[in-house]
Every structure is written in C-alpha cells, then in structure tokens.
C-alpha cells in the first residue's frame, strides 16, 4: 500500500513553529482557485521541461527529452548536453513512419544506440540516424525490456516467458517455455510488485556480467485465491479475476532459476527450495562479478528472517552470505552490491535501528559500517525511481546516498568513503535533494525543491561544487491566492516529538476563528511532512482559500524517523496512530484562532483507513470526515503488507478486531463520506461495502460516492474533477 504524493518536505526543526511562507501569498487581487483549475493539466505539472533526464552511458553527456509545440502537434526531441561545456545537440528523429515512441528510449550500455518501442514491437536506433532496425514483429506486449551488459542482446518478457534477441544475427530466441496465465517468468504478480518491489519497474530477471546467462524469478500463482473484479461500464457487465492473497491465504510460490542464452538449446538450472519456511524470494537479486554465482534473498512468512544465498547453478553449490533478523519485520531486502574486484560487497541494513550501509568481505564478515547515527538512508523520490538507495563510484572510492541527516524532514546528498567510512555532505540548501552520478564520477544531477522553491534541476560536481542550473519549474499557482505554510513540532503523550504542517488561509486574521481540515495518511513507509515543493498542494490551497486551516501530522508508524518510530504499530495498527493524531488535535485547540468545534478529516488509502479510525475511536472530536479507498478490516487486505505488521488473523485475532474500524462503526457520530472506485484492485470495494453494512445495522446515516471504472487512484479527468467538487461540497456543508 502506497500513497504517491507530490514532492514534499520541511525546514530545520524548531522548538515549536517554523514558518515557510510563500512571499507571494496573501496579496490582494490574486486569482481564485476552483476545482476545475486545480484539476487542469497545469495543476499536475510538478516538473520542468527536461523530461527523462539522465546520463548517456560511458560519457559526461546528459540526455533528455524536450517537447516542442502543444496538443496534437507536440513533437519530441532527444537532446544531448555536454556537462563540461553546456553545448547541446539533437539526436536525429527516427526515419520512416513507424510511429516510434522516442519517450520510451533506453540507452545501450555503450551509449551508441537507443532501444525504442513502436506499437507492441521493439526497434533499434543508431545515433547517426538512418532507418531504425526492427527487432520484433508481433502483436504481443513486450515487458521488462533490457540490454545485456555487453550491449549485444536484448531481453524481454512476453506472455510470461523470457525472450532474447541477438543484435548481431537478429535471431529471436525463447528462453523459457513454461510461462502461462498463472506462472510468471521474469516478471512479478500483483502482490510481489505492490509490496516487495513497491511498485517499482525493475524486471524480475538479471543478466550475468558476461551477458551469457540470465538469473530469473518465477512466481506460481496457482494456489493464490482469485478475487473477482466487476466492471460496470459496458453493455454487458464483465468480471476479471485477480490473484490476491489475503492474510493467511496461500501466497505465490517463488523459485529462482538460471538460463543460458548462448547455447542453441537454452539450459536451465533450478534452485532447490528445500526449506519452504522461505516464503518469499526478494525480487532484487544480482550476480557476482565473475558471472558464476547469483546472490538472492529468501525470507520467512513473518518477514523477520532474511538469508542472502550465494548460488552456483552449474555446480549446485549454495551458501548463506548474510543473515538478518528483526523481532518486528525487515524493511531492507535489497541485493548486495559486489565491488568489481569480487572480494567485497555493500549491504543495507536497519540492524542498528536506522537504514545504513555496511561493507562486507565475500566470506560474509563485516568490514565496517559506512556511516552511523540517528539518521537513515532514503531512496530517491519521484524523479529518480529507477535509482537504488545508493550509487557507487569505485574508481574514486565513494558511495553516494540521500540522508535524513540533519533533519528527517529533509533529504540531503552525502557521500562516504569505502576505505574509511569518512562522510561528506554535498548539498547545503534546506529542502529535498536527489542525486544521479555521472558514469565518470565527476558530476551529479540534483533535483532540488523546498516548500517555497519549485523544482530546480541542478548540475554539480561530485565534491558539491555548483556547475549550472539546468531547468526550473514556474510555480503554476503564482497568480492565485495562496495560504502560508508553517512547520510545527508537537509532543506525543509520552513526550516523543511529532512533526506537523499547518496552512493558514490567504488574508489570515488571528482574531478570527477558523475551521480545520486534517489531511491524514499515517501509514508505514510514507512521510507527509517534508520540506519539498508540493507539500502544500493545490487541493490544500483550494481549501485554504475557502477559509480552512489545513493540518497534517506524521504519527508514529510513518517513515523517516527510524525503525523504532515505525515499529510501534506492530500487531495493533491504528492504536498509536490515533493517539498521536489526537495529540496534534489537542495542540490545535490551544491556538486562539482555531474553532475546536469545527474539525474535519480526510485521507485516501491508509489515510482513508485513518479517517475512519479517528471518526470511530474519537467520537465527538471531528465533525465530519471523507474516507477515500479505505481499508475497513485488515483481513480484507493483502497478505504480504498486512502480515508484515499484524501477522495472520489466526495468530493475532484481538489485534485484527481492534484495528478494523468496521467493528466500531456503531461509535460513529460525525458525518461521513465514503468514496471508492468500483474497479479498485488494491483496496477492494469489499472494504467500503462492509462498512456500509455495519452503518446500516447501526442505523447511522452516511454519504456514499462510488466511481465506476476507477481503480485505487482516480485517473480520468472527469472523475478527478467530480471528486474535488464532491469533497468540497461535503466539507462546506458539514464543517
């Protein structure tokens, strides 16, 4: 379960309040926001004009897509920019009329060719121009497309089997043959992609460094129960089955394999999964530099014991390289990173309570921890989802990463020496940064923003020296009335500091009494209160303009504050989250301009769950609430996510009962709006329907908005606009 939000963040912690006001806010005569405006294309534009910005392999050249024109006349240009001189050149457009998607481009490892999609097929483009070369010719979708490390072959998944194209001969070879509707080779099923890869885009296969073999994960969904999804927007209602394991259900059966790609008849080695206590195989795995052994991780069903296996498919040799254990759950399941000499590797672990990097020798012995303290390494957000948690420049001996040091509401770029553990901070501006290191290790791209600074794309040297600002985004709301955002630190009942965000309406008058709208999420692996552009988004500004104070607080259980801060929810989801949210409400009520009798709450997904938890467990505190796509009983959600925090219903029946708002619907006193997409394949509509049934049995009135054809997040412009209008109308009528 994930909530994807615009880039968000906060400034340096202060004892109580830290202002991050927009200097253009509160000016008279500014335009007024409407639901139509915030749902226009500009309202969702969080980036500048350099799309797909990255490095051309083997060079210090940046590459990016530039759009020219608007509407149907929009044209794409692939631009190369020299990092040292700033000079630019355009790559010639694909010749012919094959309707190739330049936006889909993928560099060859040598940086001399581009792989692009055209319809359902793959094409190879030479940078010198000319007719693109067609690699495949059928109508089947090609998924998880990759180059081999030597650039001589292209692999992909089609109909759940792995294929390979030899670029020298044009030979197309099918490497696996057992893939079918229920057995996936080299790709993930719904629950693995959602909860172990966390909606990532990486394939479930990896080329060996010499390009002669592929290690791949297979998933057999046959034992996983089918969940029917009903589709109403058609002349005849249709059903599709989704393989969806709920807590305690059978999970997909994983297996690890290696297949050769250079033999006339591919040879496959199958890892003998003798220990079926290993419920999961991590979808992140890798090869040793000599191309002889595969390193992959297995994990028990409780997700408390992780073993890294080093497996030689040819000889059958298998040994445990590293083992991690945690009494609650393990978050870090990344593959080890083997240094090129084959003698050492890097490993991520939360063993000291914070996600840090460690150096090991290949005998499995820890050499040193690479940086320590009450901060954590974090993965890039939004702009760099393809990057891992760290990047390594072996030639200079540095590893680069994002850190919550010195303020967990920020992300700063650091580097650490592999030979000594010496750390250096490379970015200085308070806010959110990211880093993508150039192939030569001389430069990095920094995507920066703060609460008051729209996203900027900067080029820096890897010692932190600024080179150039490559791109900036204009504030799409600069001409509109905007509220001011303040960052607040409040104390939980036991004294733990909690970070929050408060937005005051435009033209704020401290002598008035304002209603409050609480924006809540509160779940694991998500942090709302961060110092980045978009933390106060267009919806918040719309409500602020309507005269509401906006409030958001990261309770315990949320991300960014270490494993101890997160793991307090173990076996009792909702309990500590509600307590911390109510501590925030108590603080709000001490403010002279807050009307404590007019507090509303809304959230989506885990935020929808938290909305119902707050309404049912704190009756009388909130006047109304809107819950979008809510979990109403954890027995209805998926196995991997739910069991990580709650174990199974059989093991923890009391926890499941107490953590599910459907069991407390009769306590509801506030007005409630329930919102759900009828095609939601993540938090199924079963959740809302059971809550409705409980409200009906208790004779409690409610409002219900079901959106046909939409999934967990509403995608169509009409549905998003209607949702904004419906919620605004609900809060204006009840708050």
Helix content: 10-25%
What CATH calls the topology of the domain at 17-43 and 476-734 is: Rossmann fold
> Strand tally, please?
46
| Radius of gyration, in angstroms, nearest whole number | 26 Å
Which key terms come to mind for this protein?
mainly beta; Rossmann fold; five-stranded antiparallel β-sheet; 35% strand; globular
Overview in brief:
This protein has 735 residues and is mainly β. 13% of the residues lie in helices and 35% in strands. It has a domain of 286 residues: Alpha/Beta hydrolase fold, catalytic domain (Rossmann fold, 3-Layer(aba) Sandwich), CATH 3.40.50.
Structure description:
The protein has 735 residues and is mainly β. The chain has a domain at 17-43 and 476-734: 3-Layer(aba) Sandwich (Rossmann fold), CATH 3.40.50.1820. The protein has 10 helices and 46 strands. Strands 1-39-40-42-41-43-44-45-46 form a 9-stranded mixed sheet, with helices on both faces. Strands 14, 15, 16, 19 and 20 form a 5-stranded antiparallel sheet that branches. A hairpin with a 4-residue loop joins strand 37 (453-461) and strand 38 (466-472). The longest helix has 18 residues, at 717-734. It starts with 16 loop residues before the first strand and ends with a helix.
């Amino acid at each position: 379960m994930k909530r994807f939000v615009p880039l968000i963040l906060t400034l340096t912690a202060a004892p109580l309040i830290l202002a991050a006001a927009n200097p253009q806010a509160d000016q008279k005569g500014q335009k007024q926001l409407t639901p139509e405006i915030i749902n226009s294309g500009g309202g969702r534009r969080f980036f500048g004009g350099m799309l797909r910005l990255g490095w051309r392999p083997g060079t210090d050249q940046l590459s990016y897509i530039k759009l020219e024109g608007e509407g149907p006349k929009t044209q794409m240009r692939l631009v190369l920019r020299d990092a040292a001189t700033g000079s630019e050149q355009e790559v010639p457009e694909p010749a012919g009329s094959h309707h190739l998607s330049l936006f889909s481009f993928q560099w060859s490892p040598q940086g001399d060719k581009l792989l692009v999609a055209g319809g359902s097929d793959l094409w190879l483009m030479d940078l010198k121009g000319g007719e693109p070369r067609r690699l495949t010719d059928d109508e089947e979708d090609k998924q998880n497309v990759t180059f081999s490390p030597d650039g001589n072959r292209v692999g992909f998944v089609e109909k759940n089997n792995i294929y390979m194209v030899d670029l020298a001969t044009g030979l197309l070879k099918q490497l696996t043959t057992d893939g079918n509707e229920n057995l996936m080779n080299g790709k993930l099923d719904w629950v693995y992609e959602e909860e172990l890869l966390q909606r990532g885009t990486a394939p479930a296969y990896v080329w060996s460094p010499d390009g002669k073999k592929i290690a791949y994960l297979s998933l057999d969904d046959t034992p996983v129960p089918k969940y029917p999804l009903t589709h109403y927007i058609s002349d005849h209602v249709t059903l599709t089955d989704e393989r969806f394991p709920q807590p305690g259900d059978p999970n997909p059966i994983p297996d690890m394999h290696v297949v050769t790609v250079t033999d006339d008849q591919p040879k496959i080695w199958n890892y003998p999964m003798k220990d079926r206590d290993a419920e999961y195989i991590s979808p992140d795995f890798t090869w040793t530099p000599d191309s002889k052994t595969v390193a992959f991780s297995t994990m028990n069903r409780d997700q408390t014991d992780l073993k890294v296996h080093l497996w030689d498919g040819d000889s059958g040799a298998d040994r445990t390289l590293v083992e991690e254990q945690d009494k609650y759950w393990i978050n870090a399941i990344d593959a080890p990173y083997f240094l090129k000499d084959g003698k050492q590797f890097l490993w991520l672990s939360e063993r000291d309570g914070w996600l840090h990097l460690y150096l090991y020798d290949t005998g499995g012995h820890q050499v040193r921890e690479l940086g320590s303290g009450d901060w954590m390494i974090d993965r890039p957000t939004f702009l760099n989802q393809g990057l891992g948690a760290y990047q390594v420049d072996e030639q200079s001996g540095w590893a680069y990463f994002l850190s919550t040091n010195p303020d967990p509401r920020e992300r700063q770029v650091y580097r650490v020496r592999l030979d000594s553990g010496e750390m250096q901070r490379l970015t200085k501006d308070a806010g959110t940064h990211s880093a993508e290191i150039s192939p030569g290790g001389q430069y990095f791209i920094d995507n920066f923003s703060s609460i008051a600074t729209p996203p900027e794309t900067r080029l820096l040297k890897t010692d932190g020296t600024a080179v150039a600002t490559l791109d900036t985004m204009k504030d799409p709301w600069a001409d509109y009335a905007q509220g001011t955002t303040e960052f607040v630190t409040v104390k939980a009942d036991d004294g733990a500091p909690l970070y929050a965000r408060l937005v005051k309406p435009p033209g704020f008058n401290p002598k008035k009494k304002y209603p409050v709208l609480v924006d809540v999420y509160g779940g694991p692996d998500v942090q709302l209160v961060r110092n980045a552009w978009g933390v106060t988004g267009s919806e918040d500004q719309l409500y602020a303009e309507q005269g509401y104070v906006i409030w958001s607080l990261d309770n315990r259980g949320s991300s960014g504050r270490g494993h101890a801060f997160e793991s307090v929810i173990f076996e009792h989801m909702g309990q500590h989250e509600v307590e911390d949210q109510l501590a925030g409400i108590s603080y709000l009520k001490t403010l002279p301009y807050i009307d404590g009798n007019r507090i509303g709450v809304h959230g989506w997904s885990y935020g929808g769950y938290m909305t119902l938890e707050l309404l049912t467990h704190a009756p009388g505190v909130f006047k109304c609430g809107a819950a979008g796509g809510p979990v109403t009983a954890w027995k209805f959600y998926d196995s991997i996510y739910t069991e990580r925090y709650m174990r199974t219903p059989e093991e923890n029946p009391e926890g499941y009962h107490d953590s599910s708002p459907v069991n407390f619907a009769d306590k509801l006193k506030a007005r409630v709006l329930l919102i759900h997409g009828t095609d939601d394949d993540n938090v199924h509509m079963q959740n809302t329907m059971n809550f409705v049934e409980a409200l009906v049995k208790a004779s409690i009135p409610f409002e219900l908005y079901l959106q046909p054809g939409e999934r967990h997040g509403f995608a169509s412009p009409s549905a998003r606009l209607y949702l904004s209008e419906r919620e605004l109308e609900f809060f204006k009528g009840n708050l």
